[in-house]
Amino acid sequence: xxxxxxxxxxxxxxxxxxxxxxxxxxxxxxVLISGFGSLLHGQIIKGIIFLAYQALTWFVFFSFGWxxxxxxxxxxxxxxxxxxxxxxxxxxxxxxxxDNSLQILLYSVFAVAxxxxxxxxxxxxxxxxxAADVDIRRGRRPTGFARDLRNIFDKNIHTGMLTLPAIGxxxxxxVPIIFMILLAFTNFDRTHQPPGNLFTWVGLENFRxxxxxxGFMGTTFFNVLGWTLIWAVFATFLNYIxxxxxxxxxxxxxxxxxSLWRTCFVIAIAVPAFVTLLFMRQLLGEMGPFNTILNSMxxxxxxxxxxxxxxxxxxxxxxxxxxxPYTMLIxxxxxxxxxxxxxxxxxxxxxxxxxxxxxxxxxxxxAVTAPYLxxxxxxxxxNFNAIFFxxxxxxxxxxxxxxxxxxxxxxWLYSLTVSYGDYNLASVIGILTFIVSAIIALVTFNITSxxxxxxxxx
Length: 458
Hints:
Layout: H1 2-5, H2 16-22, H3 25-30, H4 36-40, H5 44-71, E1 81-87, E2 90-96, H6 101-137, H7 145-152, H8 157-183, H9 205-211, H10 216-251, H11 258-270, H12 273-283, H13 289-296, H14 308-336, H15 340-348, H16 353-381, H17 384-388, H18 409-419, H19 423-447, H20 449-452
Antiparallel strand pairs: 1-2
């Protein structure tokens, strides 16, 4: 037995199955009772922590979790009813609540998440017990809680620093995302609102409706998706190009008061974007100051926010005021760090300013700022503020399903949830938006020189 147990050399690389196969009886019992091995090895505090978390996990699961998981396949069967009830000598009709599909789904996801995290902690307890076994076989005393605590702030500081953020990300990001994804496979819409009504699983029906180009919902999705991509392209590259041009003008040799010009653009950033957008909305309205001045000069009213095509052009132009200063600051830093030797060598070879810009400045700038450009593109796909505060998705149209002519996928999603209660469709839109953003980001980044020639620009 001792020879068999000696096969495992590195306790830090053991697996759960190896711990069961080669561990002592204490470790094998730990498979059933978390922390048991640690307690018997003298690691009292560690054993109590493992045991307490196992008790908490089973309490959550058996006190209410299993009831909701049991109803998860149907999302409830008992509808809300009404009954006659005696109260203060009068007979009144009261509502008798039935199942709540939303609670069943939410609490089921929560219970499974707690159980999954409990299993991770339980595996850690088994590994910890086996590590103590190895220490004893090698004639060492198992590490105590105080030493483990010191290691967290020393050689295992990465574990100590990342554990809490990882738990927070799992609890407040991963679990809500899983809940949202599950909603996409239900009929949780305005006509199935709990607790008055139940909703059920519908499989891929919502996805089929969205991808049906001949249907009302599918037509809306592809039109909104097309405008979202057009908006992202113009909003990203126009800001990038004009920001670069401004940076080149400010950093040009011989330009005076460079700090003043940079400060003017920084002030534009200092004003909150939503304030600027709300101001522009009032300025460009049909009865706003701009149209009032045009009318007084004999010109016709310009429907900046009411005409579909003009409204789309307007949001792109207004977004330049917000986006150019950011790009100007970033590209200014890059311009200052381009090696001067490159320009001197190119001048010796007879290259002029245009050739230098095309062959040196632009390639270097793009290689360094490509990740920023990709981030901005994805950010513009999800640019809620620019559309919501300026046009609120309008102008409205009967050709789209609960969407306006300037709605992006993210603003359409917001309207579907807050205004119309179509949570199932909104969940589908959220999933598809993520897929589109992820594909674009991963593909474009991997084909840029920033990824292929990473060492060159360090």
